[in-house]
What we know:
The complex is a heterodimer of chains A (65) and B (236).
Chain A: H1 3-47
Chain B: H1 2-27, H2 41-68, H3 71-103, H4 111-132, H5 137-151, H6 153-163, H7 184-235
Helix pairs in contact in B: 1-7, 2-3, 2-5, 2-7, 3-4, 3-5, 3-7, 4-5, 4-6
Amino acid sequence: MDHFGFLLAAYSAIFAAIFLYVMFIWNRQANLEAELRAMEAKLAALTAPPHPDPQPGSSPDVSEP
Amino acid sequence: MSKRLGNILGAATLVLITVSLWMIFAWVPTEAEEGIVQRIFYFHVPCAWVAFAAFAIVAVAGVFFLWLGGQIWDDLGYAAAEIGMLFCTLMLITGSLWAKPIWGTWWTWDSRLTTSFVLWLLYGGYLMMRGMLEESEQVARFAAVVGIVAALDVPVVIVSVRLWRTIHPAVLVTRQGGHGLQDPRMIVTLLVSIAAFTLMLAWLLTLRLAVLRARTRLGAIARAVAIAEFRRGQSV
């Protein structure tokens, strides 16, 4: 390996490491955001007030499509 | 706000890194004695600078966490330690790649190299501890103390070339005083590279803090879901 090889190796190591680290962060952030959305939807479903059971003989609500 | 700041810092980093690469490979003159391999210096020194700055942030965040408490200080310390470790590793690798053609060896137990390696080991231990133990107030407090103590090695690394006999070049501040750079363009190139890497540190901190904040939020929502499931189970 001549001296240019050492120079190339040093700069390649720096850019490769930083690129991989940024990819790791972005990937982790995307996974966490997906988990957050799923968890928020689950929480909303759990804390929503239960729908009242329709009484026998009562007319169905037709105001909503 | 955080995402916008991250984008601005990322774009600014990219621009400044491009400028610094142009300066390193097209503008700055080749050093007479060491030749082309001396150009490693323009990214090796900024790597060291970012590592030291990040470890200083770990120490400051640790002090504020112990003093005031607050998740943000713990997150800041954790993020800075991780980034500092990355750049400390790069500093050791690029230093080794410079040393082989100049000194004829990849590594020697010189005072600057040894104290830098000790620093790398200390923060390696810090990150291993944080990775292996479950997050809690006690772990965060212990990590803050370790982060502060480990940062005490940073000034030792900096002054090691003046305190002990060493073969590591003292370029920025020589033993006789002044700097060891022969051409003013070398100083300008080094300063631009340091500015680019400082911006990169800020950008990476913003990105990593966003991940840690999302993790904290996920933990809070997971707890709320568990409580809601427990209450629903009781009411049925």
